[in-house]
């Protein structure tokens, strides 16, 4: 049985997680460019964006921590997705691949507090398809 649909859904999910990793990397880059952040926050002229230095430092620290969480969880999800797709190749171990897809989707969605849920939906559907689809049996007479 061909598992093309599951592999395609896995690739789309991995691309979604790659986008999430790019967002995490951008957050880390912004944390390390403090001058650019200060200029962006003070250059708007909007009085609602005026922050104290303590609030600004807390925001920078939160951005760095969130960036690391997004980056690490996305890389982990991509690696686990590739492992699951390799297990699907040739229909060798679809049940294990399905469990990996589903567990990765659920865990990463919770860890990232919902940021990875869209990519997780593709992994979730691929995992369910891996578990539900059974090879056709032919009767010989």
From TrEMBL:
Transmembrane segments: 7-30, 65-88, 95-126
Superkingdom of origin organism: Bacteria
Keywords annotated in UniProt: Membrane, Transmembrane, Transmembrane helix
Residue ranges of domain DUF4064 in the record: 2-110
Name of the protein described by the UniProt record: DUF4064 domain-containing protein
């Amino acid at each position: 049985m061909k598992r093309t649909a599951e592999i395609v859904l896995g690739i789309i999910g991995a691309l979604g997680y790659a986008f999430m990793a790019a967002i995490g990397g951008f957050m880390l880059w912004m944390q390390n460019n403090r001058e650019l952040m200060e200029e962006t926050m003070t250059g708007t002229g909007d009085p609602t964006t005026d922050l104290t230095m303590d609030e600004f430092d807390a925001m920078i620290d939160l951005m760095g921590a969130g960036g690391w969480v997004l980056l690490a969880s996305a890389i982990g999800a991509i690696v686990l997705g590739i492992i699951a797709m390799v297990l699907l190749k040739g229909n060798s171990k679809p049940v294990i691949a399905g469990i990996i897809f589903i567990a990765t989707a659920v865990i990463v969605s919770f860890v990232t507090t919902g940021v990875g849920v869209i990519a997780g939906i593709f992994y979730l559907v691929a995992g369910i398809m891996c578990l539900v689809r059974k090879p056709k049996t032919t009767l010989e007479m």
